[in-house]
Amino acid sequence: MREPPIRGPQLPADALDRILTARPEAAGLPAEAYTSAEVHAFEQELLQRRGWVCLGRTDQVAERGAQRALTVAGEGVLVVRDTETVGVFVNACRHRGHELVRSGCAVRRSTVWCAYHAWVYRLDGTLRAAPRFGDLAERDPVGMGLTPVRSEEWHGFLFVNLSGDAPSLAATAGNLGPLLEAYEPAGLIRTAEHEYEVSANWKLLVENYLECYHCPSTHPELSKVQRTTHGLDFEDRGLWLGGYLDLDNDAVSMSLDGRGPDWRFPGLDEERARQVCYHALLPGLFITAMHDYLVVHRIQPLAADRTRVVCEVLFPRALLDLGTDPGYAAEFWDVTNRQDWQACESVQRGITRPGFTPGPLAPEEEGLGRFLATMAFLYRSGRSPSAPWPTPSAYPGALRTAATAGTTAGRQAR
Fold this sequence. Notes:
This protein is α+β, with helices and mostly antiparallel strands and about 425 residues long. About 30% of the residues lie in helices and about 25% in strands. It has helices spanning about 15-20, 30-35, 35-50, 135-140, 170-175, 175-180, 200-210, 215-220, 220-225, 270-275, 315-320, 325-350, 365-380, 395-405; strands spanning about 55, 65-70, 75-80, 85-90, 105-110, 110-115, 120, 125-130, 150-155, 155-160, 190-200, 230-235, 240-245, 275-280, 285-290, 295-305, 305-315. The strands form four sheets. Strands 11-17-16-15-14-13-12 form a seven-stranded antiparallel beta sheet. It has a four-stranded antiparallel beta sheet with strand order 4-3-2-5, with no helix packed on it. Strand 2 and strand 3 form a beta hairpin. The longest helix is centred in the C-terminal third of the chain and has 26 residues, at about 325-350. The radius of gyration is 22 Å and the shape is globular. Mean pLDDT is about 90; it is low at about 390-414.
């Protein structure tokens, strides 16, 4: 049974209605959506706790006994690799709640061990020993075992749903999984990782990712190797948004000089191999797919004006076996990321100033507009959606926009 709706934040109703009904004068969300602690708390509950959140790649706990402690929506979780499976548990001993592994740390042990009173758990979460409690482990192995957290693996990624009652991950991801299959994501190798802390609201990062209107003025390097107009949005079904833009005629890959390997994933034809495909699985996983590698961004809101980002570069083993140096991808995206974060931080400072009023959306910002409609619907309904569109009974105007955009013919070039 799904949790009941929660009260949404107090945001100007007229601004939300303009977004939801897709009126011509629709603009961005009001400034409070990016600065308010109340809005941040609402989003943490509805999206981070009640939705599916990506913890990273399953290969980060590849060996038996590997354990990683992470934080999701303020709650500590422990990822544990058993022989064939990956389990996720509340990162707290059942005795007094002591952390089993310090948040942000990783260990490898044959058991899960609490340093406070030395309670010991098997890798499947069952209680193995409780000192001076006699036969407690034998009498009540299930009741005193670690508390499981609902989790699923998807294309080599590990997701959790803290509340335990979200729609299935398959329903949330919709048709994104089949769309990514040609890139063989489950078998890719992580070749680089960068972590950033951005002084901006997480939604600004999503909005920035969903449009390339800013690319010519913000990304001189990217604009030399990728076209910045005449892309198309994907026909998405699920809680994700995205689209593609083509490589420039002279570019081989997304690199600072446009050079790259003369290689493509076997499942891509020549036309698709020229596309740079952007996918944002809400609330915080960006998957950028190219003919030779993938780049993944995991977005973790820390406060209304602060966001943690982990960027990983994933390469196919076949390309690495050919002796390809993957550094060209890591270098390019680190430059691009820093340009994006600088822009988002500038926007955060701008909207914080008294009297700020958001401007209209450009034609190239259709994907951004659909994300804003999703957020506006959340604020009004207090319910987490199973797809990024309001229901027909709630906001007919927004549904008409969605229906138009839901076909390839309805997708607007960007």
